UniProtKB/TrEMBL annotation:
Annotated segments matching region Disordered: 33-52
Keyword terms, alphabetized: Signal
Lineage top rank: taxon: Bacteria
Protein name: Lipoprotein
Signal peptide range in chain numbering: 1-32
Top-level taxonomy: Bacteria, Bacillati, Actinomycetota, Actinomycetes, Kitasatosporales
Length: 248
């Protein structure tokens, strides 16, 4: 894939690095919680949606259509879970709202709207950051732009390239039989490379959105669930006191 091979590495190898230091946290948003709400809000999964014929296509074509459909939705909810972290984010090309939990290292909330970024870390996260040479205030909303090192790190979980540069396939994939995910009819397509495997589930009715990604490698490998396609993110500045973010 144009970036799938890169993403596969990014979502596994970087997981260890992201658990070790606060900065940089680039590409730390890597997986998703399996949910019965997968596909909620999507044209591809609502009751009465008509078959879209995507399951008749070759695996690579299915992948491309699914990734493009997600981008064309303009926004969606992305849930992630792996062995050391989980997150629940609502995303668009210019907005991001949600929470990231590093499990053993604390959690933080993040809001991004265009070039404005707000973040609030809990006490455990602030203590972990301090151990790694970064001083950030706990339980206070911080504000800064993408040029601010700390805010850039926190917002790195907001992978806006999913909307601006959706993935296309350039490695072999295989197609499985139509099945169901969270009540939605989907066709699974699987990428296998270097002993690792990742399966993408694409809706076979309505809009052919990718509603779920599963890794079979375990450990640091992520899983993802996408839902609420096209639902407005509604990012806005948090209420209450806001402090300037440290540079890091």
């Amino acid at each position: 894939m144009k970036s799938t091979r890169v993403r596969f590495v990014r979502r596994t190898a970087t997981a260890v690095a992201c658990a070790a230091v606060l900065l940089p946290l680039t590409a730390c948003n890597d997986s998703a919680v399996e949910s019965d709400d997968a596909g909620k809000g999507s044209q591809g999964t609502h009751a009465g949606a008509k078959p879209n014929g995507v399951d008749k296509l070759a695996a690579k074509e299915i992948y491309d259509k699914g990734m493009q459909a997600n981008a064309d939705a303009g926004s969606f909810r992305e849930q992630m879970q792996r062995s050391d972290a989980k997150s629940d984010l609502r995303l668009s090309a210019t907005e991001c709202v949600g929470k990231v939990d590093l499990l053993q290292h604390g959690s933080f909330e993040v809001i991004r709207k265009d070039s404005d970024i707000w973040g609030k870390v809990d006490a455990a996260f602030a203590a972990w950051a301090k151990e790694n040479g970064e001083v950030v205030p706990a339980d206070k909303w911080m504000h800064g732009g993408p040029e601010n090192t700390v805010m850039k790190a926190l917002s790195s979980y907001c992978h806006h390239e999913q909307f601006t540069k959706p993935d296309t396939a350039d490695v072999e994939m295989t197609k499985g039989p139509v099945t169901r995910v969270g009540g939605a009819s989907v066709v699974p397509i699987t990428q296998k490379e270097a002993g690792k495997s990742r399966t993408y589930y694409v809706a076979t009715t309505g809009t052919p959105n990718v509603v779920k990604e599963d890794s079979t490698t375990g450990g640091q490998a992520p899983d993802l669930v996408f839902s609420e396609f096209g639902v407005a993110v509604g990012a806005k500045a948090p209420a209450g006191p806001i402090v300037e973010a440290p540079q890091g």
